[in-house]
From TrEMBL, chain A:
Sequence intervals crossing the membrane: 15-36, 48-70, 90-113, 120-139, 170-189, 222-244, 256-282, 294-313
Principal subcellular localization: membrane
Protein location: Cell membrane
Keywords for this protein: Cell membrane, Membrane, Transmembrane, Transmembrane helix
Chloroplast keyword on record: no
UniProt organism field: Azospirillum isscasi
Name of the protein this chain belongs to: Branched-chain amino acid ABC transporter permease
From TrEMBL, chain B:
Keyword Magnesium: no
Cleaved signal peptide residues: 1-27
Residue span(s) of domain Leucine-binding protein: 30-367
Family according to the record: Belongs to the leucine-binding protein family.
Superkingdom assignment: Bacteria
Protein name: ABC transporter substrate-binding protein
Organism: Azospirillum isscasi
Coiled coil regions in record: none
Keywords: Amino-acid transport, Signal, Transport
PANTHER family linked: LEUCINE-SPECIFIC-BINDING PROTEIN, PERIPLASMIC BINDING PROTEIN OF ABC TRANSPORTER FOR NATURAL AMINO ACIDS
């Protein structure tokens, strides 16, 4: 595929599709939710939206820049803890904690990125794994600040400049508006020359370097930006649930977000969104199957990787990327010799 | 109108009518409870036990010729706060559910509690031990002795045995935190000294560095806050290092699996419990027999017994609120629970909805838990 095609908006994305999507999110779904008037549906809609944001933010690093990120949930946690601490210790409301959570998460991401961003392939993945674990252990063990495993009860609900938005429909609209704005921003970032520069890292970082693209700086920026959006998602979660503890941000959450990006399709923002919706809605939808639901979710993921190696809408195959990440030793057909490990 | 659409209409009408009938039939003589618990995931072993215990309690209740039948809706939370909150919303939406049991971990119980608080649905957890759990609202109850109660009790017990300098270790969870704080307060109040205290992360495989660090403080005895998996690992390594310092623990470690996994390394461990499967009292023997029948002859531990009692306490509260039990009436009935004769001893709820339990002192002797006088 010609790389410059990728910066153009995907086909069909004139005005019609975004308009229809906006209608769906801001008119259709709320009408349905209000019609059913079930707290359960509101809860799932909000949770799905938060994970759409998490998945979209990871898409920037893993999908577009092609860097395996194994610690994303930790920045989600930093955002949630920032919101919870600012709100319980300094009495700040959601209006203030929302941007601050993003900024603190981004700042921490920037600081940990400084020494690690020159790493490539599997070494980068291991570094993000370590960063994620480190932040998780800080949340768990720095009892004086984070109250450790006791978690924090957040008494302040969603509000905007003092107006309470804690009603069911108001909560949904707040979450939907924040997530939509963030996803739009991520969309603009990934479908632009900037996004193409990130893609060049994914396709061949040495070549990009040789062409004068500052790969270390781009990686750092992508990493920091993605942490910002994850932090925003954390703030939404903290104010929405009212109680957070380190368990919400452990390694398995990072893997869940990674799975969303992969199932949806690496490099595709709509894919990341659909992946998030799928992996949040499916386990809930399958509750009727009792203990088998996890197996069924696993089966869906397995089959999607097996039958759709590029995910639902991906630009690149996850397997291709994994091979490149896991070893430079993988080679495609060269001079009549078959593919395989060197 | 086509034949197909009219057929569809008739079918949906029929479904509606039967649904409505079933609805009224349910309302007449079936009361629904919700139980959220980890049936899959890392803590599934506990959730599966709770379900088994709850089913025993439920079958008994429905066979006892009460004026109404009870039904429990089990939902799997995977010990995940996201899922726990979803389930809470689902239970709240179901107007027939008048009371909820669970969750297993404090974290999930507390996240779900925010929903129950808002909706006014009583929640009784068999295990949530976080000090702030019952403070969330008047709808949160627990059927477990807190460490604020157990810690000082164990502190007095150890000091009475002449152990003045005590080392404390506990898992790094909200519960572990309460183990250390509850016990340390008890020791200080009764003239002892805590010479060492440290936390370890759950699932730690190698305790040797922790043990040798602890031994450097030269304690007379070690007090531990762990569950059976970590406990067995710890005790084996204490034995391997040839350390003879006596080990004391909480009721959370009271499980036959502790002895099964630790083998003779568990010998001589002292702990408290509020459930003794060897107690000859008929209601306890009844539960033990039922449990053995349902689990290939295995003896129940402390947690399933707590779940069994929690379900029975909830059912008793519903019975008290009957006829026309509402969530509010069930809550009030729960709050009035006094001297409930459970398998984990007599249980009363204090004004702040904490279970007041009697504790029994136990020692591991000859591969079994044996009650001791002191």
């Amino acid at each position: 595929m010609n790389v410059s095609d990728l910066s153009a908006p995907p086909r069909g994305q004139g005005v019609l599709i975004p308009l229809l999507l906006a209608l769906l999110v801001f008119v259709g779904l709320p009408a349905l939710l209000a019609g059913f008037d079930r707290g359960y549906f509101y809860q799932i809609a909000n949770l799905a939206l938060i994970f759409v944001l998490l998945s979209a933010s990871m898409h920037l690093v893993t999908g577009v820049a092609g860097l395996l990120h194994l610690g994303h949930a930790a920045f989600y946690g930093v955002g949630a803890y920032t919101a919870a601490l600012l709100s319980t210790k300094f009495g700040l409301g959601f209006t203030a904690t929302l941007p601050l959570s993003g900024l603190v998460a981004a700042l921490i991401a920037f600081l940990v990125a400084l020494p690690t961003m020159r790493l490539v392939s599997i070494y980068f993945a291991v570094a993000t794994l370590a960063i994620g674990q480190m932040l998780y252990l800080v949340m768990l063990n720095w009892v004086e600040l984070t109250k450790g495993p006791n978690g924090i009860i957040v008494t302040k609900g969603l509000e905007l400049f003092g107006f309470s938005l804690s009603g069911r429909l108001a909560t949904y609209y707040t979450v939907a508006a924040v997530v939509t704005l963030c996803v739009l921003a991520i969309g603009r970032l990934s479908h632009s020359y900037y996004g193409n520069a990130l893609r060049s890292i994914r396709e061949d970082d040495q070549c990009a370097d040789a062409m004068g693209v500052s790969t270390a700086r781009l990686k750092m920026e992508a990493f920091t930006l993605s942490a910002f959006f994850a932090g925003v998602a954390g703030s939404l979660w903290a104010h929405m649930t009212g109680y957070i503890s380190p368990g919400d941000f452990k390694f398995s959450e990072s893997i869940l977000i990674l799975a969303m990006v992969v199932v949806g399709g690496l490099g595709s923002l709509p894919g990341a969104v659909i992946g998030a919706l799928l992996l949040i809605l499916l386990p809930e939808g399958l509750r009727a199957f009792g203990d088998f639901r996890n197996i069924m979710v696993g089966l869906v993921m397995f089959l999607s990787i097996l039958l759709l190696p590029k995910g639902l809408l991906g630009e690149v195959s996850a397997l291709q990327l994994a091979r490149r990440q896991l070893g430079a030793a993988w080679r495609n057909t060269v001079k009549g010799e078959g593919i395989g490990w060197r | 109108m086509t034949a197909r659409s009219s057929l569809l209409k008739t079918a949906s009408l029929a479904a509606l009518v039967t649904g409505a009938l079933a609805g009224t039939a349910l309302a007449a003589d079936t009361v629904k409870l919700g139980y959220q618990l980890p049936l899959t995931g890392e803590t599934a072993q506990y959730g599966q036990d709770f379900r088994k215990a709850a089913e025993i309690a439920l079958t008994e209740f429905n066979a006892a010729g009460k004026p109404f039948k009870a039904e429990i809706v089990f939902e799997d939370s995977r010990s995940d706060a996201k899922e726990g909150t979803n389930i809470a919303r689902k239970f709240v939406d179901d107007k027939e559910i008048v009371g909820v049991l669970g969750d297993f971990t404090s974290g999930v119980s507390m996240a779900a509690a925010q929903v129950y608080k808002e909706a006014g649905l009583p929640q009784l957890s068999q295990t949530a031990s976080h000090p702030d759990y019952t403070k969330i609202s008047k709808y949160q109850f627990r059927n477990i002795a807190t460490q604020a109660q157990e810690g000082p009790y164990n502190a007095k017990w150890m000091l009475s045995k002449g152990y003045k300098n005590i080392a404390v270790i506990a898992e790094q969870t909200d519960w572990g935190q309460s183990v250390v704080s509850g016990f340390t307060e008890g020791v200080k109040a009764n003239g002892g000294t805590v010479v060492f205290s440290e936390f370890f992360n759950r699932g730690l495989k190698d305790y040797r560095s922790l043990i040798s660090k602890l031994e450097r403080a030269k304690p007379d005895a070690i007090y531990t806050g762990f569950f059976y998996e970590d406990g067995a690992q710890f005790l084996r390594q204490v034995q391997q290092l040839g350390i003879k310092t006596p080990v004391y623990s909480t009721s959370a470690a009271y499980s036959p699996k502790l002895i099964e996994l630790a083998g003779d390394a568990a010998e001589g461990v002292h702990l408290t419990s509020n459930f003794l499967p060897t107690d000859p009292a008929p209601h306890i023997q009844h539960f033990v027999t039922e449990w053995k029948a349902a689990s290939n002859g295995a003896v129940p531990g402390q947690f399933p017994a707590q779940a069994y009692d929690a379900v029975r306490i909830m059912l008793a509260a519903v019975e008290k609120a009957y006829p026309n039990p509402t969530r509010e009436k069930v809550r009030d009935a729960l709050a009035q629970t006094k001297d409930f004769p459970g398998v984990t001893g007599k249980t009363s709820f204090s004004a702040d909805r904490e279970a007041e339990k009697e504790l029994v002192k136990v020692e591991v002797k000859g591969g079994a838990f044996v009650p001791v006088a002191d």
